[in-house]
Amino acid sequence: QVQLVESGGGLVQPGGSLRLSCAASGSIFSRNAMGWYRQAPGKQRELVATITSGGSTNYADSVKGRFTISRDNAKNTVYLQMNSLKPEDTAVYYCNLADDTRITTPFDYWGQGTQVTVSS
Helix (H, G, I), strand (E, B), or coil: what is residue 51? Predict the structure, then answer.
């Protein structure tokens, strides 16, 4: 059974930075893609960034150039470095796994998420 634990969220001012972490249990981590998702109140969950098992990355247009996704397979952990944060980045952030060939379709392993709030 895969378990995911997100951490690193908090309250930051516009223009600030935050680094999120997602620790995954189980040996399947290194064999799968990972993604970061976010959901704001009243809105649907959206895909923020993905990284394949081979390290290829993709980003939503809204965060491209500001966010960086990375992974450390030895620690079964994926990171999201968020710079130049904007109020519209405020949301609960989640991570999940996906098959490399179906990277936009995550498995049903959702964790509790971590809250990111950007306000002055």
Answer: strand
